[in-house]
Design goal:
It is found in: Cell membrane. There is one protein chain. Strands 6-9-10-3-11-12 form a six-stranded mixed sheet, with helices on both faces. The protein has a four-stranded antiparallel sheet with strand order 2-1-4-5, covered by helices on one side. The protein has a two-stranded antiparallel sheet with strand order 7-8. Strand 11 (559-564) and strand 12 (567-572) form a beta hairpin. The chain has helices at 12-16, 20-23, 27-61, 67-113, 116-121, 124-166, 168-215, 217-222, 226-278, 284-325, 390-397, 420-426, 441-445, 457-469, 495-508, 525-539, 551-555, 574-580, 582-605; strands at 347-354, 367-374, 379-384, 405-410, 413-414, 427-430, 439-440, 485-486, 513-517, 543-547, 559-564, 567-572. The chain has 19 helices and twelve strands. The protein is an alpha/beta fold. Bound molecules: adenosine-5'-triphosphate.
Length: 606
């Protein structure tokens, strides 16, 4: 993640301009509402002009006939002002919400597209706060911040022009007295950008803490760490409060000047105005109109401060959103993709090297020249000590990560030459940690079959078969059977039930290669035996690479590959390896021990 303490590198305008592609479709409406707002303030500014004309004209000459048309003009201006306010509100309503929705969709699509390596590095709370609160900040700024800012600057410039025509001396006094305000505003920018960035990052960290503690609520409760977690949360919340206070203090400092300076400017101009009127250089009408116009200009001048702070906050939000959108994705589809002409399911790891991006240079590659050939229809078990890289090796087959050296070939084609859609249709995975989505069992199981109509008889058949092989008969006993919503928002399932649904999902994808990362670990012995019998039927026609943590999973395989020090050091039948390979015997005996400990634990619990 980017360093939070570094000052922003791009200028505010250049950073904000990055949202232009999203704004472009709604540019017409946004610019129109800007013009309407400017017109609105011009109407307000013209009232003093009419005022001056009435005072210096009909009122001075006593010509009553001209008072009525003048009053009519003032009334007309009032009505025009009301209508323009209505039109502006109507115009700004929809574009900003559309822009926000489009940006959110783009961000979500990007998050889906980015590789696992990106998600390893980024905290989920940071991504959450960027896709929610930062985008809302951008929407609010587009809805009125930018319009008021640009509109008010235009009004201030035009207003000063009008003041000049009435009395250049007074206008000069007013402008010179206002200069310190601009200086304060610009000095404020740098400081505020840093604090506002820090606050937004801290909000992301806080969201991560909430998300993690909600996810891990059971562990926290079981270990009695709720209090510790609360303390951690309070500390972060306190830090955020401190930063928000710092923000509020710097805004308060700005406000002090923004309120004080126009007052001083007003007072000085008033003084000058009285002197000029007394010496006959300014009419009474001119003097009153001057102050009426200055009063109209007061709000635009005062508003510049918070509009600037809003703009800088939006700049930070845009920066944070684009940090994700700009993230390069090294795992892309090739420009000219190949395809597997005759899918048979031959999976080959050819001199494969891999190291995680954050592993120190002094550490050798985690996978260091892996050579492994899994023949079509064969079931290959992957065995190795814990932490030897078995899961990592399976992740390379579906390009969750890309190899850092060598190649992975599917039916002779480098998997990087296939589109990711084709690759993931050909190779399906089931993980030890079964992730289910808040959707029905049916939707979860048929996730890898987007071409199927979920309610079709064919989908029913695929679903029933997959659930049967995975021994997920408990689904029938759910309140709405396969249409019951499960996952985070739905019915809670046991670890073993979740694993069986995840396994059914991999089976239902009907891939040519099935990659199973210890998908039976949460099952009891009987269920495991039944699932294995079902799997044997599937695996007879499908190539499978199965990470094995139990001797029974090894028995399921035709051959076993031993992963040792980043390499496949032996491949053969279980009995052959037992007979000839000491390290294999050691690994298997440690699996046996794990299994016995598990049994003992189950007995103690029973
Ligand atoms: N996303 C990651 N980023 C950095 N290092 C990782 C990441 N995932 C795993 N590792 C490291 O890579 C090594 C191999 O992990 P891996 O999960 O592939 O081993 P494994 O053989 O499957 O282990 P186990 O049998 O315990 O499941 C470990 O030292 C682990 O700390």
């Amino acid at each position: 993640m980017p360093d939070q303490s570094t000052p922003p590198t791009r200028g505010t305008v250049r950073t904000l301009a990055r949202i232009l592609p999203f704004v472009r479709p709604y540019l017409g409406r946004t610019v129109t509402s800007l013009f309407v707002y400017v017109a609105l303030t011009m109407v307000s500014l013209s009232v003093p002009v009419v005022l001056q004309w009435i005072i210096d004209g009909p009122l001075t000459t006593g010509d009553a006939r001209q008072v009525w048309p003048a009053a009519g003009i003032v009334l007309g201006l009032g009505i025009a002002e009301g209508l323009l306010i209505m039109v502006r509100r109507f115009l700004v309503l929809t574009p900003s919400t559309h822009i926000e929705a489009n940006m959110r969709n783009a961000l979500y699509a990007k998050l889906q597209d980015l590789p696992v390596a990106f998600h390893d590095r980024w905290q989920s709370g940071q991504l959450l706060s960027r896709s929610m609160s930062d985008l809302s900040t951008i929407r609010r700024w587009l809805a009125f911040g930018v319009i008021l800012l640009v509109g008010n600057v235009v009004v201030i410039v035009v207003g000063f022009g009008i003041l000049f025509t009435w009395s250049w001396q007074l206008a000069l006094v007013f402008i010179i007295a206002s200069i310190p305000m601009w200086v304060v505003g610009f000095r404020f920018e740098h400081r505020y950008s840093l604090v506002s960035r820090r606050a937004q990052d801290q909000q992301g960290d806080l969201a991560t803490t909430v998300e993690e503690s909600v996810h891990g609520i059971r562990v926290l409760k079981a270990f009695g760490r709720g209090k510790h977690s609360l303390e951690n949360f309070l500390r972060q919340a306190e830090e955020l409060r401190g930063t928000e206070l710092e923000k509020a203090r710097s805004i308060a400092g700005l406000w002090l000047w923004l309120l004080l300076i126009p007052d001083v400017a007003f007072a000085l101009s008033l003084l000058g105005g009285v002197v000029l009127a007394a010496s006959g250089q300014l009419t009474v009408g001119g003097l009153i109109a001057f102050f009426a116009a200055a009063a109209v200009l007061r709000w635009p001048i005062e508003s510049i401060g918070w509009l600037l702070s809003m703009t800088f906050e939006t700049r930070t939000a845009v920066e944070r959103v684009f940090e994700v959108l700009d993230e390069p994705n090294p795992i892309r589809d090739p420009e000219h993709p190949s395809t597997v002409a005759e899918p048979r399911g031959r999976l080959v790891f050819e001199n494969v090297h891999f190291r995680y991006q954050d592993s120190p240079p002094s550490v050798p590659d985690l996978l260091d020249d892996v050579v492994l050939e899994v023949e079509p229809g064969e079931t290959m078990a992957l065995v190795g000590l814990t932490g030897s890289g078995k899961t990592t090796l399976t992740a390379l087959a579906t390009r969750l990560y890309d190899v850092t050296g060598g190649r992975v070939l599917l039916d002779g084609v480098d998997i990087r030459e296939l589109t990711r859609d084709e690759l993931r249709a050909r190779i399906a995975m089931a993980f030890e940690e079964a992730t289910l989505f808040s959707a029905s069992v049916r939707e979860n199981v048929l996730l890898g079959r987007p071409e199927l109509d979920l309610d079709s008889p064919e989908a029913d058949a695929v679903l029933a078969e997959a659930l049967e092989i995975a021994q997920a008969d408990f689904v029938e006993r759910l309140p709405l059977s396969a249409d019951t919503t499960i996952g985070e928002e739905g019915l809670s399932l046991s670890g073993g039930q979740r694993q069986r649904i995840a396994l059914a999902r991999a089976i239902a994808a009907r891939p040519s290669v099935l990659v199973l990362d210890d998908p039976l670990s949460a099952l009891d012995v009987d269920t495991e035996a039944r699932v294995e019998a079902g799997l044997r039927r599937v695996l007879a026609s499908t190539t499978a690479l199965v990470v094995a943590h139990r001797p029974s999973t090894v028995m399921l395989a035709d051959r076993v590959a031993l992963l040792e020090n980043g390499r496949i050091t032996d491949v053969g039948r279980h009995s052959e390896l037992l007979a000839r390979n000491e390290h294999y015997r050691y690994v298997i005996s440690s699996l046996d021990e794990d299994r016995e400990t598990e049994h003992e634990e189950q007995e103690v619990i029973a």
